[in-house]
């Protein structure tokens, strides 16, 4: 069960491992390598709204970044079996993200929150939005009537999501964020000062020049490459869909406490 209150750093590391948010995660090694290869081969589904050009055509370069920033096994000959996310890297990235949230709160900035993984991370983003609003930030309200080929771009509990067939939709696409930012510009409204998101929502925001921080799994390398290049400010490595979304509560509590928002 999730631990109550705000954990210490050591308690959080232990919790991440026990719940498999980090440590020995559910995503197998072969799936990780398959995604790294597809990104390197130019499959834009795996670019998460970014424009990577020809810079990451060698899958071994992708693996090297993922070993450094996520903690997956760095041996290119290790091709099947268990892979890992280093919980210390997860917590360190949470602390970096907390620094950017603190800056947003101190400046009462405009913040947009969004998720392409509502089954796992909606609660994380909603709690972050509530804390930022309480600190005086403006939570950006997205324009009405937006849609992409996948569905409608909605805002639910202060978090932008994709809706398809009356269901919140899992998407890697950057098109929903493109739709929001384009509509804001068309209406003459200011863009967010900060986007807190995941998947293509975070990637496209960074590509568009908006400060972006986000979360990504070990089989979604694009945001980590973007952080390495400076397009995305922070990417937190974690399993983005564990058994219960409540398992993320201690992590969220730690993040908000580090940001001075609790």
Automatic annotation (TrEMBL):
It comes from the Bacteria. InterPro entries: Phosphatase_SCO2771. This is Phosphatase. It comes from Streptomyces gilvifuscus. The lineage of its organism: Bacteria, Bacillati, Actinomycetota, Actinomycetes, Kitasatosporales.
């Amino acid at each position: 069960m999730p631990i109550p209150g705000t954990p210490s750093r050591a308690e959080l590391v232990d919790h991440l491992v026990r719940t498999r948010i980090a440590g020995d995660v559910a995503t197998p090694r072969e799936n990780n390598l398959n995604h790294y290869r597809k990104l390197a081969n130019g499959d834009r589904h795996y670019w998460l709204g970014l424009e990577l050009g020809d810079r990451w055509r060698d899958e071994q370069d992708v693996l090297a970044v993922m070993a450094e920033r996520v903690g997956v096994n760095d041996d290119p000959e290790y091709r099947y079996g268990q892979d890992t996310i280093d919980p210390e890297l997860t917590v360190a990235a949470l602390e970096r993200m907390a620094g950017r949230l603190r800056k947003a709160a101190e400046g009462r900035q405009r913040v947009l929150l969004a998720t392409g993984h509502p089954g796992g991370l909606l609660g994380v983003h909603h709690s972050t939005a509530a804390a930022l609003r309480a600190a005086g930030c403006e939570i950006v309200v997205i324009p009405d009537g937006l849609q992409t080929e996948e569905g409608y771009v909605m805002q639910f509990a202060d978090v932008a999501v994709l809706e398809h067939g009356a269901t919140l939709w899992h998407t890697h696409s950057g098109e929903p964020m493109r739709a929001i930012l384009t509509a804001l510009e068309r209406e003459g409204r200011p863009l967010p000062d900060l986007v807190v998101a995941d998947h293509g929502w975070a990637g496209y925001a960074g590509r568009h020049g908006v400060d972006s921080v986000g979360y990504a799994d070990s089989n979604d390398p694009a945001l980590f490459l973007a952080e390495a290049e400076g397009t995305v400010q922070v990417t937190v490595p974690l399993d983005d869909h564990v058994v219960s979304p409540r398992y993320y509560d201690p992590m969220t509590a730690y993040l908000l406490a580090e940001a001075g928002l609790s």
